[in-house]
């Protein structure tokens, strides 16, 4: 599997330095990879939908669209990309919780730190990509990567699967049986709904927001959803 990595920084010398460290480690690990460079948040956002990055190293302090605003725009489209912030100021690190940043790297770069964070991110990526949901329909069997599923909902005897790109697939089944076959990042938020916690961007009084979608959170499920969301923010 090829790993697609993005580096977004408005300083060419910083992109070059980070890329060199990443490529040394990737080559030592024998990974098949592609590195794309972006000189601004605007450029990254323009290309993000087509390029579907697995890992992104994103500078926080950039001219024009800064790293935090860039990350917010990206998260509306894709919850899957593993986001690693790059910054010269440790104070900015805590802002990363809002956009589910996986880690951070401080400038000036320490090669050991870069390579250690890269290895952790690749391990995390491998965990999510190894898991699939098998969906049986009249037309045949589908094997769907679990990380591309936003939520499941039940409607009488049918279960509706909502994917990251907005596509909906339905099949006959019970939500309890579906839950038993899913990774632990799928959380029961209601008797009729299961959500992928990685897509949850906010909780309100009685619901959770997943990209542009909102799902109800029942009183019985509220505490478990809040705990799962807090763990995600602190990851």
Characterise this structure.
- By secondary structure, this protein is an alpha/beta fold.
- It has helices spanning 12-29, 41-51, 67-77, 111-129, 175-180, 222-233, and strands at 2-8, 32-38, 55-59, 82-87, 103-106, 132-137, 140-145, 149-155, 158-163, 168-172, 186-190, 193-196, 200-203, 207-210, 213-216.
- It folds into two domains: 2-129, Response regulator (Rossmann fold, 3-Layer(aba) Sandwich); 132-233, OB fold (Dihydrolipoamide Acetyltransferase, E2P) (Beta Barrel).
- Strand 3, helix 3 (67-77) and strand 4 form a beta-alpha-beta unit.
- Helix 2 (41-51) runs parallel beside helix 3.
- The mean pLDDT is 88.
Approximate strand percentage: 25-35%
Helix content: 25-40%
Total discrete domains: 2
Strand order in space, largest sheet: 2-1-3-4-5
Principal-axis shape equals: globular
> Any guess at the CATH architecture of the largest domain?
3-Layer(aba) Sandwich
Radius of gyration: 19 Å
- Tell me about the largest β-sheet: 5 strands, parallel
What's the CATH topology name of the largest domain? Answer: Rossmann fold
The CATH superfamily of the largest domain appears as Response regulator
How many E-type strands?
15
Give start-end ranges of low-pLDDT stretches: none
Helices, by number, come to 6
Q: Which CATH class of the largest domain applies here?
A: Alpha Beta
Mean pLDDT, all residues: 88
Sequence of secondary-structure elements: EHEHEHEEHEEEEEHEEEEEH
Distance between the termini: 25 Å
What structural class do you assign from the helix and strand content? alpha/beta
């Amino acid at each position: 599997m090829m790993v697609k990595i993005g580096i977004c920084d408005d300083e060419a010398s910083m992109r070059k330095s980070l890329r060199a460290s990443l490529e040394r480690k990737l080559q030592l690990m024998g990974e098949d990879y592609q590195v794309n460079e972006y000189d601004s948040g605007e450029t990254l956002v323009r290309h993000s939908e087509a390029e579907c990055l697995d890992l992104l190293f994103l500078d926080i302090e950039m001219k024009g669209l800064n790293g935090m605003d860039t990350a917010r725009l990206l998260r509306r489209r894709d919850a899957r990309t593993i986001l690693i912030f790059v910054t010269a100021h440790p104070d900015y690190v805590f802002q990363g919780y809002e956009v589910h940043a996986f880690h951070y790297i401080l400038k000036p770069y320490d090669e050991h730190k870069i390579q250690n964070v890269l290895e952790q991110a690749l391990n995390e990526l491998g965990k999510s990509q190894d898991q699939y949901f098998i969906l049986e329909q009249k037309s045949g069997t589908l094997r769907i990567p679990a990380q591309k599923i936003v939520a499941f909902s039940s409607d009488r005897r049918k279960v509706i699967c909502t994917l990251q790109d907005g596509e909906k697939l339905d099949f006959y089944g019970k939500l309890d049986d579906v839950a038993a076959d899913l990774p632990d990042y799928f959380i029961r938020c209601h008797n009729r709904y299961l959500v992928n916690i990685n897509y949850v961007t906010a909780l309100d009084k009685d619901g959770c927001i997943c990209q542009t979608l909102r799902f109800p959170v029942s009183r019985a499920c509220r505490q478990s959803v809040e705990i799962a969301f807090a763990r995600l923010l602190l990851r």
